[in-house]
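Practice problem 4.
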């Protein structure tokens, strides 16, 4: 780039005959800024990109929240059913006294090998408050570790058993959308949250030997015949924490078989996904009680 200077000849120094010329740089074009319309179009395109990105982010967050909700519900249901299964499968169990010491020495007597639980403690029972209570015999057998009994209730209690045929008790109850468990003096603790329904039905064995039957019934149908209960059906309805958009009238089938409209439920259940879980457990040795 060259700098050219135009000067007046000496003979043209009178006023008006020669004017000083400005300095010019060859090869440069005059600069032009954005017009108002161009600026407005650029801002509009930028806002459109931000809006699309925000909508995509909200969609991803909604999907992620829903997946997390489903995963949490399934994990809670698996834990609750496993806890119920551990206790219910042992309900009605017998004390097996082999008469052996820690070295395996001793005599097994058929007269004393099996000990029935106390007749005042039912294998399973439901009280007037809807609490489901299970009992089974917890006993301390001599083992090589000599580390005490291994029988536990739904909370892992008791740590020690006072007698060789103590009762292990688990008490399940639904309080304010929280399924809680207690027993053997342990304080009640929540084992599942966001529980919409908790219902137990009982498989009652008929007394007719010619045509034995198994009937599903509730606690009122069992009456005082708890010794005839052979199995238990547990039904749980768990709901999520994420609010989702649902069409009006969306419903699910509850534990009692009736349709429940999700969009008309009160908080915190309205417009939340609901899952129903059912499982049937057999009581151990209940027929011998």
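Answer key:
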């Amino acid at each position: 780039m060259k700098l050219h200077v135009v000067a007046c000849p000496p003979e043209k120094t009178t006023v008006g005959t020669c004017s000083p010329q400005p300095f010019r740089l060859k090869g440069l074009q005059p600069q032009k800024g954005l017009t108002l319309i161009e600026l407005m179009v650029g801002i509009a395109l930028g806002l459109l990109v931000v809006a699309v990105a925000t909508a995509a982010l909200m969609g991803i967050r909604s999907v992620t929240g829903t997946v997390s909700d489903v995963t949490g519900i399934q994990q809670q249901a698996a834990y609750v059913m496993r806890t119920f299964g551990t206790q219910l499968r042992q309900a009605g169990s017998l004390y097996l006294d082999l008469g052996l010491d820690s070295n395996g020495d001793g005599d097994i007597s058929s007269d004393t090998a099996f000990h029935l639980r106390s007749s005042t403690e039912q294998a399973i029972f439901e009280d007037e408050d809807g609490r489901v209570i299970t009992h089974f015999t917890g006993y301390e057998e001599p083992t090589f570790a000599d580390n005490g009994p291994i029988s536990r209730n739904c909370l892992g209690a008791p740590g020690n058993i006072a007698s060789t045929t103590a009762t292990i008790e688990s008490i399940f109850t639904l309080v304010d959308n929280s399924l809680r468990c207690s027993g053997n003096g342990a304080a009640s603790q929540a084992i599942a949250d966001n529980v919409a329904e908790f219902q137990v039905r009982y498989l009652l064995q008929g007394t007719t030997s010619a045509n034995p039957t198994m009937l599903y019934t509730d606690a009122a149908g069992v009456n005082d015949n708890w010794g005839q209960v052979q199995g238990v059906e547990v039904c749980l309805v768990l709901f999520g924490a994420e609010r989702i958009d649902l069409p009006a009238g969306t419903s699910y089938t509850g534990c009692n078989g009736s349709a429940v409209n999700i969009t008309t439920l009160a908080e915190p259940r309205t417009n939340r996904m609901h899952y129903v879980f059912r499982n049937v457990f057999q009581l151990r040795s209940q027929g011998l009680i």
